[in-house]
Design goal:
The structure is a homodimer. Helices cover about 40% and strands about 15% of the residues of chain A. Chain A is α/β, with parallel strands linked by helices. Chain A has 2 domains: about 150 residues, Aspartate Aminotransferase, domain 1; about 230 residues, Type I PLP-dependent aspartate aminotransferase-like (Major domain) (Aspartate Aminotransferase, domain 2, 3-Layer(aba) Sandwich), CATH 3.40.640. In chain A, helix 11 packs parallel to helix 13. Chain A is globular, with a radius of gyration of 21 Å. At the A-B interface, helix 1, helix 3, helix 5, helix 6 and helix 9 of A face helix 1, helix 3, helix 5, helix 6 and helix 9 of B.
Chain lengths: ~400, ~400
């Protein structure tokens, strides 16, 4: 049998999804599994978006422009203006999900062997994208004890080598919920200018901020037009993960041109989904007021639960809908598998994402998990009760 | 300004799409452009597929399984059985278009610097996928004079090196319309076994065959389970290019596993489109009888037109809906641009795809174009008249 490539072997299984077979087995045994492992919200997609599919008048489902339908890009221009991001439709390449936006951006600016600096813990699939692109991730560690704020600029700067092509951040952050401050963003901009780097920002959670915090876009930073690259997705914004619509936004014309050429090879993002996404831009503001309120209530329910768990450490996040939790276990991976395969409370158990896959530094995150606030308050509360009971039972197993 | 990567610079603009700005300009000037440059058929998508969008009952548009929805994969199993391809749903990874199927397959089996042998001319975007994957394409040239049949096995074998990982074919072929014979497929299988290679087959045009020919799937070849990888898409089958649904099918479990891990990084293909694609599997057979008849009539109209053009050389294809044509011009690229920017017949002109982008060997295809039978018989006939008049006018310009 011919062998896989090194790359094919190196691609990591998703730490968020690798326990799926254990969850499926638990369900086969009649158990209910609370899925707070994955960022798949139960929040309803805006009706105006769902309607767009029902009301389509296409007789042929055709290719669109490789950079995205103009009518959708024009709507995106209006959308970004609401966040003080002034761009034109020519500054946008629509992608198949935020995933493709990241892969295209990496490929456009980095060659195999080049490096990108990313604060860890980070969205675990960055690992997979980096392996696909042959790019090395150099992590800078953010600590749960510090609420996951960025380390000082000197510490980030110390990771810059002659192969570094970009710094990539995610704010509001998946998996930590941390929202970068203006000072942190300014500091990153200084480093990007000083060392001739790109600054990538994954901002897919911008709507989901709490406690009066706002998430500033990298495209509002002064004197950074050639370096700032916004990576975006509608998956979380409109609870439309299955639409697979994202985009790259930058005022750097060369990067746009390279991403367009990458886009031409794969022809186009899904057509109907773009038409629906264009409608979704007109989602009434009350939708977000309601959804943000709901996520906030869930966060608070989770933290109420966590505070009652001895030995659990977590920092209440100001954004997104995740939190990292340090648990009193040696091997969170084993604990998460055990929860699915050997534990239940009255036929119910909980699925968490082990956090080691969110760190690039070997050995970090072994005792941490990521929780997603993707179920209703009652279910989140119940999940924390199950987690608490699970930890007790796990510590007493032989 | 920080520079693009070498890869970002090397990505070729689509030779099929790079003339789009000239076409847009022609339209701005009020001209009608016959788009026979791109494989975007005007054929109607099956009503059962379009209906699936109109009738959806989702309230949340969620992620699906990274390897594709089980309900769609189960339908695909039935679909393939109609072509004597016996596979299970675990042998299938659903992808975002055939494009992603090719990228995943390349990445799974080849590392940067590895090589894949591909008969040329080939679907031009293979170039872009190879650059993304860092893989080198070693072409074996098929000649228009031979009707684009494969060269002898010895000639293909001579291209095999210690970096060769796969041979990749497309049958029925884009851009030539050639359908591989059983003897040719058997010869490729012998080479794959002898040199421990994978055999990739892009078979997205299997329904579109004429003159009594059938297109045999690589998955029907004996003793090739570990090596045969089918790359597929519904874009042409159901005239649903904008759906972006493809798949990888192979009985090699390791390859499936690697493609699943590549798939987990990008989460999933579009969800609603998969539900619609599952319905499309039940498209009534009469649909294909009608569509194949229509393509056949178009092919015949094109060749009637081509036969009246002095100096044009083409081989009437038995499959797909393209043909390569050698034209009496030195630089087909320039001619195609000129047709859009400086020529029209009563306000009408034609857009063709220059063929040099379909060859990997420098210098080949300079005097060839690809035509796609994607417009109705009247429009194809008119396009050939415009092409004929254009060639005359082009030869007389100063």
């Amino acid at each position: 049998m011919p062998a896989l490539s090194n790359r094919g072997q190196a691609m990591p299984p998703s730490p968020i999804r690798k326990l799926v077979p254990f969850a499926e087995e638990a369900k086969r045994q009649g158990r209910h599994v609370y899925h707070i492992n994955i960022g798949q919200p139960d929040i309803e997609t805006p009706e105006c978006m769902l309607e767009a599919f029902r009301e389509h008048h296409l007789t042929v489902l055709p290719y669109g422009h490789s950079a995205g339908l103009w009518e959708y890009r024009d709507e995106l221009v209006k959308y970004y203006a609401r966040f003080d991001v002034e761009v034109s439709s020519r500054d946008i390449v629509v992608t198949t999900g935020g995933s493709e936006a990241i892969v295209f951006a990496l490929m456009a600016v980095a060659d195999p062997g080049d490096e990108v600096i990313i604060p860890e813990p980070f969205y675990t699939n960055y690992n997979g994208f980096a392996i696909q692109a042959g790019v090395k991730i150099r992590p800078v560690t953010c600590r749960i004890e510090d609420g996951f704020k960025l380390p000082a600029p000197e510490i980030i700067e110390a990771q810059i080598t002659d192969r570094t092509r970009a710094i990539m951040v995610c704010s509001p952050n998946n998996p930590t919920g941390y929202v970068l401050s203006d000072e942190e963003l300014d500091g990153l901009a200084v480093l990007a200018r000083k060392h001739d780097l790109f600054l990538f920002a994954d901002e897919v959670y911008r709507e989901f901020v709490y406690d009066g915090v706002t998430a500033r876009s990298v495209l509002t930073l002064p004197d950074l037009d050639d370096r700032a690259i916004l990576l975006d997705s509608i998956s979380k914004r409109y609870s439309a993960c299955g639409a697979r619509i994202g985009c790259i936004v930058t005022r750097n014309e060369e990067v746009i041109d390279a991403c367009l050429r990458l886009g031409q090879a794969r022809l186009c993002p899904p057509t109907l989904e773009q038409l629906a996404a264009a409608r979704a831009v007109h989602t009434p503001p009350e939708y977000f007021v309601r959804v943000v309120g709901e996520y906030l209530a869930r966060r608070d329910a989770v933290f109420e639960g966590l505070r009652s768990i001895p030995g659990a450490l977590a920092h209440q996040p100001k954004g997104a809908f995740y939190t990292m939790v340090r648990l009193p276990v040696d091997d969170a991976d084993d604990f998460c598998r055990w929860l699915l395969s050997e534990f239940h409370v009255n036929g119910e158990t909980v699925m968490l994402a082990p956090a080691n896959g969110f760190y690039a530094t070997e050995g970090l995150g072994q005792d941490e998990v990521r929780l997603a606030f993707v179920l209703n308050v009652r279910a989140m509360r119940r999940s924390m009760e199950i987690l608490k009971a699970g930890l007790t039972a796990y510590s007493m197993r032989d």
